[in-house]
Design brief:
- The complex is a heterotrimer of chains A (388), B (290) and C (330).
- Helices cover 47% and strands 20% of the residues of chain A.
- By secondary structure, chain A is an alpha/beta fold.
- Chain A has two domains: 209 residues, Rossmann fold; 149 residues, Rossmann fold (3-Layer(aba) Sandwich), CATH 3.40.50.
- In chain A, strand 6, helix 7 and strand 7 form a beta-alpha-beta unit.
- In chain A, helix 1 runs parallel beside helix 2.
- The longest helix of chain A has 23 residues.
- Chain B is an all-alpha fold.
- Chain B has a single domain, classed as Orthogonal Bundle (ABC transporter involved in vitamin B12 uptake, BtuC).
- Chain B is globular, with a radius of gyration of 19 Å.
- Chain B starts with a helix and ends in a 13-residue tail after the last helix.
- In chain C, helix 2 packs antiparallel against helix 10, helix 2 crosses helix 12 and helix 12 packs across helix 13.
- Chains in contact: A-B, A-C, B-C.
- At the A-B interface, helix 2, strand 7, helix 8, helix 9 and helix 11 of A face helix 1, helix 4, strand 2 and helix 11 of B.
- Chain A: It holds the Pfam family Peripla_BP_6.
- Chain A: InterPro entries: BCAA_transport, Leu-bd, Peripla_BP_I.
- Chain A: Keywords: Amino-acid transport, Signal, Transport.
Chain lengths: 388, 290, 330
Amino acid sequence: MIRKSIVSLSLALAMAVGTAAASAEELLIGAHMPLTGSLARSGQTFTEGMQIAVRQFNERSDKYKFKVEVIDDESTPAKAVSAVEKLVNDGAVAVIGGYGSNIIGPASAASNNLGKVYITAGAVSDELTARGLKTFFRINNNAGYQRGVENLVAELKPSAVSIIASTREAPALLAKGLEQSLAEKGVKVTVHSFDPAITDFKPIINKVKLRDKADMIVMSAYENDYVGIIRAAKVLKPDVKLIVGVWSLATPKMYSEFPDLMNNVVGTSFVPFPVEVNDPEGKRFADLYREVYNKDIEYLATLSFVETTILLEAISRAAEAGTLDKGGLPDEMRKTDRQTLLGRVKFDETGDNPFFSLSMGQHRDGKIVLVSPQANANGSIVYPGLPW
Amino acid sequence: MIELVLQAIFSGILVGSVYALVALGLAIAFGTMRIINLAHGELVLLAAYTAYFVETNTGLNPYAAIPLALVLVGGLSAVLFLMINRIREHRELNSLILTFAVGIIITNAILLAFASDVRTTTSPLLQDAVSIGPLFAMNGEVVAFAVSLLLMGGLWWWLKGSWYGQAVRAVSSNRDAARLMGINPVRTEYVAFIAAGVLASVAGVALYTMSVVQPSIGHAFTVKAFIVTVLAGVGSIPGVFLGAILLGVTEALTVTLASSALQELAGMALFLLVLFFLPTGLFGARARRG
Amino acid sequence: MSSHVPSVSRPSSWPSSIVFVGIALVLAALPLAAGAGNYFLGLLISALILAGISLAWALLGNLGGMVSFGHAAFFGVGSYASALLSAKLGLPVLLSVPLAGVIAVGASLLMIPALRLSGPYFALAILAYSQIFRILATELSWLTGGAAGFQAIPQLPTVLGLDLASRSGSYVLLVVVVALCALVYALVRRSLVGTALRAIADSEDATRVVGVNSMLLKAWMLALSAFITGVFGALNAHIIGFLEPDYAFSGVWSVLPIIAAIFGGYRTTFGPIGGAVIIYLFDQVVAKSIIAVGHQILLGFLLAAMILLAPNGLLGLAERFLKGRRDAEA
């Protein structure tokens, strides 16, 4: 709490100083995030990445300074809709959405009704982009995550893969897609879906060990599940060659918190760690993040950093062109086409980012090495490679 | 196949022993006072976070946090009793709301103090694997199992041997008769609540060493604990232990033989079956029908 | 100072009810008259949905003498039922909503064995049902869409020129439905059935002797409570337009209504409604503006204070206050 207040205080100070110095035009953006409940961790990390993006943008920009108002949506659709309405009421020119398709769906519809641009990095369901909303944008999608894992599988050619998937929305969706596409490629796939309440994964791992005889474990889940699964695997030591996960796994934070579990584990990633110097934006982000929050950048923070940066740039372009109050922001968003920490971002008609595709990074003694696809790799994979 | 089932039973027993620790605290308070402490899971969670706090700040083994947890959680449990004891009207219902409110307060206080990150022990010693023949476990789980057995033995001895322990049993089985025999039921309930706090403290620390904790999971412990209490029937320590083991093994076997997505379903179905068809629980002596 | 707190469980006399109804109607019309924005109406809509479940819960608690921890079961079944009936079978929404209530009653029939259980055992048995339903909704993905959720839920229609899908339209609809439910509740309470039920609550054995079938009456109350909860679940589904098992069967739908009912005074008709509105607005408007993360801690403190200081709820507190003044004047 104290740390949080210091952060917001310093942000406020920075903004106050900036405003006074340049007498720039101040604009408000809104965000709703799950700050309490079981997804609170995701929401807080998103918020951190967003705050840094705003700060970094304000450092660079003389003409427009941004402020952000964040509301806790408590992972409840009705509260997210209320939040969008309050944010727009308070003068937000655009809204950044929280986590989970069930939240994003109604909230982005409300935002669309109010004519405000809504961008998210936390909802991967294909139904969302099928609605034809004019103001809805997202930078990531299920297909991108699936491609990341598929590329890795295609390069390593395991004969059998076991997917351990949470029954929550996004992990279940990914597991379903992967099961289908890997089976089509002739890989033997077994899916073990588990209720999010489960904490002891040994019985599942034992099935993987004795029955599936898999070469690779793919985890489609969240941080607490990753920890449980890898721990159980470490105890039972199934004869697999690699443990792979998706979001929020190949991050410096996971390694610093669970060093005994993470070595050689592979997860979706976009930047190697330590961040390579040839990307000044990423480097500045990592430094600033460390300075403010005293920890290393992580997956969700990076996602929200990118979405926020893109949004702020589009808003300033629209403001510059004088179309911001005239509903010109959606068009300006569609003009976005730039390289980011996530790779190329460009929105199609539905607001989706078809270029979203992830690299896979491997934990290597505190570093994260990009190992797949070949084009983005900065090192070769340790395979077989296990945390034990 | 046989290897799978054996490992599932073994894992289930280890997990069940910690369910038992969590449940005993709830059961002892429920037994004497006839109220469900809905904040019990949060008390356990608070103890787990105490272990996290001690481990990260001192580098000691999480079990070194037990004294601090005893003070914090035991104290809070005592305060909770004093508040419940002030309730005069509709005690059963109002105490539910009061303890629920305290649960909300604890959960959010933990969220404010420790953020919502996933926490678990980083001690390599506790995380290492140990194998007994063809069966595997984490050291932390085996230690938790031993601690659970020890504490249950201690509790049993206390209830049988000490004056207060006997008073707790007397009040549990018949409050009016106990009063006639010169036992002060209110003071006895107070003692039972503190004992529940002690059990929650150890349970929380044990959980931290073998599982992962987050601020939002407190109430799930309360529900598990109540399921175990029902399976056991009121007033039987070995019953609680066996009920907890039964729940743990049922869950693990469901994962092994059917699907891991059905684990919670199996636990709930077991709970309902026992409720409907075994009015005294598996090992209890008293009916629970109105 | 009177030594005896009056029992609030006795139905209040007609004139005071009329005063309450009047006050409630004026309060309900106020936001529309004042031209409240979408944000505020949205909050009120959520609060009224809570109020409806709260009323249903209090009906079961007050008339049936049963405390339920699992009203989310009926809420979830109702929301999925109406969403599926209207989206997959193409039924009109105004028909699928009451049908969803009926299906929720069907779900309550499964719970009849639990009626024999006493106090906390009944409460947790219902909780177990709601968990089982949640898992079933996740597993029956061919029907419900599973964890990925169910999105193409038709909106509320336009009736007599009033677009029920708009904020103000939904608000008016919910005020009407909550008022109807309150009326039903009040009527049941005044009827012979209500008298019999209160007798059961006082002494079940005695009433059994004089020939009241308590099980049957309790089952009726459970069914009525399930129906009301199912209807509100259905309305919520059409208003929100998205369902997934974790949301539809969330513990929130079990817990918040209890808090609201107790807070307002669960032995009165208006207590649960007022309690729901106050609790929801307090948590969302006041508490959130004080503490962004973890604002529920304030709700916790408020509740704890309420139970310790005014265990009969706000209406109980008001009644005690009025009574005290009258005593003082006399």
